[in-house]
Amino acid sequence: MQIAKVIGTVVGNQKEPSLRGSKFLLLRFVDEHGEDISNEYEVAIDVVGAGIGEWVLVSRGSAARQVEGSEKRPSDAAIVAIIDTINLENRTIYSKKDHY
């Protein structure tokens, strides 16, 4: 899994049938300070109800299809958790309550 920040939404009216009802979010992968770690974006299926600005955990590749109900979806990325806090060496480096 990787840490990412939700930066937007992706909407498509015409979808492959197994993707109907799915919410797509636009992500940037970040380091522990919230800095972008690449110049690339990722579109992921949101299975947990994440919102713009939230930090999330993302499963990629075949692991994205291990989410119940996603086994047959053509997806390479799934948001599987919304991050509340990240602690490193006895200090908090991210707290959702400090960002909202």
UniProtKB/TrEMBL annotation:
Alphabetical list of SUPFAM superfamilies matching this protein: EutN/CcmL-like
Gene Ontology cellular-component terms listed: carboxysome
GO biological process, any: photosynthesis
Localization per record: Carboxysome
Any Pfam family hit: EutN_CcmL
A GO term, aspect molecular function: structural constituent of carboxysome shell
Domain of life: Bacteria
InterPro entries reported in the protein's UniProt record: CcmL (IPR046387), EutN_CcmL (IPR004992), EutN_CcmL_sf (IPR036677)
Keyword list, A-Z: Bacterial microcompartment, Carbon dioxide fixation, Carboxysome, Photosynthesis
Keyword Cell inner membrane included in the entry's annotation: no
Chief location: other
Cell membrane keyword on record: no
Self-association state and partner proteins as the record states: Homopentamer. Interacts with full-length CcmM.
Function: Probably forms vertices in the carboxysome, a polyhedral inclusion where RuBisCO (ribulose bisphosphate carboxylase, rbcL-rbcS) is sequestered. Has been modeled to induce curvature upon insertion into an otherwise flat hexagonal molecular layer of CcmK subunits.
The family this protein is said to belong to: Belongs to the CcmL/EutN family. CcmL subfamily.
Domain commentary: The tight homopentamer forms a pore with an opening of 4-5 Angstroms in diameter which opens into a wider tunnel at the base of the truncated pyramid. The pore is positively charged.
Protein name: Carboxysome shell vertex protein CcmL
Organism: Planktothrix agardhii CCAP 1459/11A
